[in-house]
Amino acid sequence: MAARHRVSHLLIEWYGRGHRDLPWRRTSDPYRIWVSEIMLQQTRAQAVMPYFERFLDRFPTVEALAESAVEDVLTLWSGLGYYSRARNLRQAARRIVDAGAFPREYAAIRALPGVGDYTAAAISSIAFGLPHAVLDGNVLRVVARVENDAADIASPRTRERFREAAQSWLDPRSPGLFNQALMELGATVCLPRNPLCLVCPLESLCRARQEGAAAQLPVKLRKTAPVRIEGVLLIVRRRGRVLLRQREAGDRRMAGFWDLPTPGDLPRVRIGDTFGEIRHTITHHHYTFTVQAATARAAVLSRSPGPPFRWFAPAQCAEIPLSTSARKALVLSKVL
User: Annotated active-site positions, please?
Assistant: First the structure.
């Protein structure tokens, strides 16, 4: 195993020479660090940045977030995906306010809704200097290559061993800096395809590089088969407004969001011209929607079962939690 002090020294020195200027790296405020880490779960930093800025403009403190309406939080989160993160964030904010302060210990941070091992390690090390190494997909890749370990990273046993490796590298004097450097390396240099080995600060310690095996690592044996789903979204307009339906509470992922109706929602609707197709991916689910114009009489709407319908002016769509597929379809049809 690579020498701990050598890894941490090289990483921190490399990080100090230059790294991406991300807004959550300019603060030690645990609230802002927490919000950023929740947003960064399964989401690229460049996609998160505008959401992070808008979110903190609206909810500058944990108290403001705790007092918010869930619909307001979802509206600001609209388009970022994985909406349970937004609901958990608001729920955790209320718990933090009830406790009187942001938790300062790893276990207490880990106990917040929506916080797992990685997020707790990131927050506790960056905000409070606690010595907990992070382990996400980027870090798994770095560890697999430095150690030249071809074990299946989907295996809990492998992940625990890799966690121990990262923990052994961590500099307890600068855990936050070390973790940010390690994540930065995985995100910008130790790439999944075509890793930039020639500019990597760990090149001399990387056993996979020495063996010519970097491109083959890490190994993930369990791959989820893609699921392809096709459907139709309807653009129903009247007097400059568009018809939307609100998803019910039983829809755990998208409850409260507004979406476009489907033919199943409006069985007696008259279908018109086709605008085209949109595609949308959520994890391994790949959706293809045909977007079509439609007309429906008020009597048809009043008899239609299912979730409530409402008419919205295009400008109002920015003020409600709108699904990503609906937003794409409305842009395609030139409603937005």
Answer: 37
